[in-house]
Amino acid sequence: MNNSTKMLIMFLLIILIFTYYSYMTPKTQMVQNPSDTVNVQKEDTTFKEVETLQKVSPENYIVPKDTTFFYFETDLIKGKISSLSGSFTSLILKNYKTRKGDSLELLKDGQRSFTLIIKSNNLIVDFSNINFKTVYVGDINPLKNDVDSLVMVGFFDTIKITRTFIFKKGSYLITHKVSSNIPLDKKEYILEKGISFTEDNISDEFQYYGVSYHSFNSIYRIKEKNIKNVSTYPGNFDWMGMQTKYFFIGVIGDGDNIEVRKLENKKLEAQFSLLSDSVDFYVGPVDYRILKELKNGMDKIPDFGWSLIQPISKLILSFLIFMYKFIPNYGIIIIILSILFIVIFSPLTFTSFSSMRKMQMIQPQLEELKKKYEKDPQKLNTETMNLYKKSGINPFMGCLPILIQMPIFFALYAILRTTIELRQAPFAFWIKDLSYKDPYYVLPILTGVTMFFSQKISSTATDESQKILVYVMPIMITILFLNMPSGINLYWFIYNLLSVGQQILIKNSIKKKMGE
User: Any idea where the Membrane insertase YidC/Oxa/ALB C-terminal domain is (predicted)?
Assistant: First the structure.
């Protein structure tokens, strides 16, 4: 297999990687079987309730003038809870900032999280407009002890609901307990207006934005493009929530019946039922290390690619994190990773070059066979294979290194594109964020240039159409990589640069062995 064919295979595989992570992220699925998924057209204004139940919350409830806000602040999270409905109206992650250096808000602009609706017998009570009163307010702003709480009560007629929020130092979890003076059939919550976008590239955020839930040891992702108006997902879950590329707001606890609604601005909001009186709200980063400690399959929230490459992705991520302890610069670690892969695949590269060199030497004989058996393709194929065998050539050896490396490249692409460790991680010079595109497009251009020299040095093509690929492919790769994260471009640039030097050394070594 000649170098142009190898290059074409490599390009197509890169396109496949790019397409998968851009457009083929897991779609809406259901818990038990396909019949469980129900996509239902509904009105935009309200969630429809079961007809046999009576909704007792007043439709035109006037917001109480004495609405107050209760502020809390731990070492990781700060925010506020409104007395109106007892829901979160602000959530800020203290250890993260926007690209402009502002506070990173997961809830803002009228968003409310975990607004409560209760169902009991033939009643549905929507507490979204009920003003709660405080029973206990601990030292939570800031949190002085390791654990403290806020307790609120809300009333509708004779129905009393108590909501308890427990805050802990060193944790992105907020424990929530609900109790009532009447038996509760269901406790439903609403993530109103979803979760805020935090990154500048909104189109990139939308690729990861949606509702995720975990059921029967599998994760299911509901994307905006899968929702026409309102969709209902019956069945059980042990956690659910809403996520963007780097952050997640959700609940850990047994529940069922998720209802997802699309808003006018393509944002989503979700309503869901919880079976337990005590659950944990997670408000934090999509950080594999943190989520793994929570168990319950929360570590599946980060998208590490197809199941077959996920172990490789996790291994690469572990390497990056481990090396960061000694070298606190992910850009340098990516360079080390490039060098490491060049060294690991050197034996395969040498074998591939040897095979290509032998193939080049028998080109005159191959041309003679083509002329001799021009009208007999079957005989031509037989004689060609005999020539390969006689010359000690395996025609598939040329593409073997690429095929073996592709699972690693898939995994590497997943990690460099989505891991929160690279978010706003600086490298050097003008590269201030390895998760963001190169603002001056220097790295993608260098990636294309080094790829051209790499292909030019190793090319054995004699056909004009194949020679054109040496020029066309680097240009197409450059265009494809223009808006990719700097971390990916840095890896490919260094890898290609090292490949050029490696190819020169191997080429000279092979020439010496063959006595040229």
Answer: 330-507
Strands, E, within 263-373: which ranges? 268-274, 278-285
Q: Give domain status of residue 467, yes or no.
A: yes
Residue 478 and residue 332 share a domain: yes
Report CA-CA distances (Å) from 428 to 321, 488, 490, 493. 19, 15, 11, 15
- Domain extent, residue 153, equals 26-58+66-302
Report how far apart the first and last C-alpha atoms of the chain are (Å, whole number). 22
The tens digit of pLDDT for each residue in 84-113 reads 889 999 999 999 999 999 999 999 866 788
pLDDT single digits (tens) 232-241: 998 899 999 9
Q: How confident is the model at residue 65 (pLDDT cuts 50, 70, 90)?
A: low
Query: Is 83 within the bounds of a domain?
Result: yes
Q: How many CA atoms lie within 13 A of 367 on its CB side?
A: 7
Query: Any residues with CB less than 8 A from the CB of 513 and at least 6 apart, and which?
Result: none
Q: Give the H or E element holding residue 453.
A: helix 442-458
Give Cα separations from 125 to 184, 255, 293 (angstroms). 11, 19, 36
Q: Is the pLDDT of residue 7 over 80?
A: no
Structure tokens at 155: 């009333």
Domain match, 218 and 327 both: no
**Same domain (yes/no): 340, 286:** no
Longest dimension (CA), the chain: 98
If residue 20 lies in a helix (H) or strand (E), which one and from where to where?
helix 3-23
Q: Answer with the one of 271, 302, 333 that is the final residue of a domain.
A: 302
Tell how many helices (H) and how many strands (E) occur in the chain: 12, 19
212: domain CATH number is 2.70.98.90
CA distances from 255 to 223, 238, 270, 271, 280 (A): 20, 6, 13, 11, 12
